[in-house]
């Protein structure tokens, strides 16, 4: 890809001319010249300053999305030109989906001859960053994402519910939101799609996670589930995480609980959607 566009993408990532220059092993004036050349070529401003902070313009956002797709397509072209006997698919999935939902699709894919798979489980924020860096072909997310920035299709809707220890007073009931706050909330780390959904629904109902008597932040589903099972707190997860496990009670708390989308997400104007449909056999 054109070096000016590589410079542009690096500046979009760092939003700092000095840090971009370091990463690219260029001088800061050279970075500035690349950006100025792109602005002259397209006849638009790509960046501006607001209160001394570098900001992308609307046109800069448009070019960034184009450049992501261009870089990905060039990498795919090189792979096709030097095609090997095995097909490599690079997939990312959030923890709920990667650990509890996609096993049948992975097993089916690997059963076919000449298939290679790189499968990354991480939170939504990290996966989208790797998608934009061209390190993944597509990602499967349960969290919120910018639907104007990417192409996507719906995998399925999955119930999102509250969980507690099997003998907890909440088990099997519908609980008003204020009644939750006497409990310790066990939630996922920042950047997790599961956590963002809970925080969004709380905010829209006029509350915040700080309303709970205590909060514990746990990035491991295994540990989170063990703590809930041992009655150390309550949590909110997708049904697949605790499906058919009698050690957990389930409770409902509209609008915090309900069905949410699981989406397959990929860069615009690429063939990644084709590979995603093939992987999922859709």
Key features of this structure:
D-Maltodextrin-Binding Protein, domain 2; Arc Repressor Mutant, subunit A; 282 residues; alpha/beta; globular; two-stranded antiparallel sheet; 3 domains; single chain; 7-stranded mixed β-sheet; 11 strands
Give a quick precis of the structure.
The chain is of the alpha/beta class. It has helices spanning 3-14, 17-24, 28-42, 58-81, 95-100, 103-111, 124-132, 177-180, 193-204, 221-229, 272-280, and strands at 47-50, 53-56, 87-93, 115-121, 138-141, 151-165, 184-187, 214-217, 235-238, 248-251, 258-266.
Describe the structure.
The protein has 282 residues and is of the alpha/beta class. It has three domains: 3-67, Arc Repressor Mutant, subunit A; 80-153 and 262-280, 3-Layer(aba) Sandwich (D-Maltodextrin-Binding Protein, domain 2); 156-258, D-Maltodextrin-Binding Protein, domain 2, CATH 3.40.190. It is built from eleven helices and eleven strands. It has helices at residues 3-14, 17-24, 28-42, 58-81, 95-100, 103-111, 124-132, 177-180, 193-204, 221-229, 272-280; strands spanning 47-50, 53-56, 87-93, 115-121, 138-141, 151-165, 184-187, 214-217, 235-238, 248-251, 258-266. Strands 3, 4, 5, 6, 9, 10 and 11 form a seven-stranded mixed sheet that branches. Helix 1 (3-14) packs across helix 2, helix 1 crosses helix 3 and helix 2 packs across helix 3 (28-42). The longest helix has 24 residues, at 58-81. 32% of the residues are buried.
């Amino acid at each position: 890809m054109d070096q000016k566009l590589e410079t542009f993408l690096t500046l979009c990532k760092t939003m700092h001319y000095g840090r971009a220059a370091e990463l690219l092993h260029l001088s800061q004036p050279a970075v500035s010249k690349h950006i100025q050349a792109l602005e002259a070529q397209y006849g638009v401003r790509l960046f501006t300053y607001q209160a001394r902070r570098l900001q992308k313009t609307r046109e800069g956002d448009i070019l960034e999305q184009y450049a992501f797709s261009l870089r990905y397509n060039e990498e795919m072209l090189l792979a096709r030109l030097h095609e090997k006997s095995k097909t490599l698919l690079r997939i990312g999935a959030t923890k709920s989906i990667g650990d509890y939902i996609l096993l049948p699709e992975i097993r089916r894919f690997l059963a076919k001859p000449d298939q290679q798979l790189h499968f990354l489980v991480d939170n939504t924020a990290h996966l989208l960053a790797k998608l934009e860096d061209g390190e993944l072909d597509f990602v499967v997310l349960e969290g919120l994402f910018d639907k104007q920035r990417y192409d996507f299709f719906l995998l399925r809707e999955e119930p999102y519910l509250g969980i507690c220890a099997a003998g907890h007073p909440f088990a099997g009931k519908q609980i008003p939101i204020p009644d939750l706050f006497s409990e310790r909330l066990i939630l996922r780390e920042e950047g997790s799609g599961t956590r963002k959904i809970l925080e969004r629904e709380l905010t829209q109902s006029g509350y915040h996670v700080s309303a709970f008597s205590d909060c514990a932040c746990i990035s491991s589903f295994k540990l989170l589930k063990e703590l809930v099972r041992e009655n150390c707190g309550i949590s909110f997860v997708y049904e697949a995480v605790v499906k058919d496990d009698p050690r957990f009670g389930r409770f409902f708390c509209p609008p915090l609980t309900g069905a949410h989308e699981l989406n397959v997400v990929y860069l615009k104007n690429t063939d990644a959607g084709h590979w995603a449909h093939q992987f999922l056999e859709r």
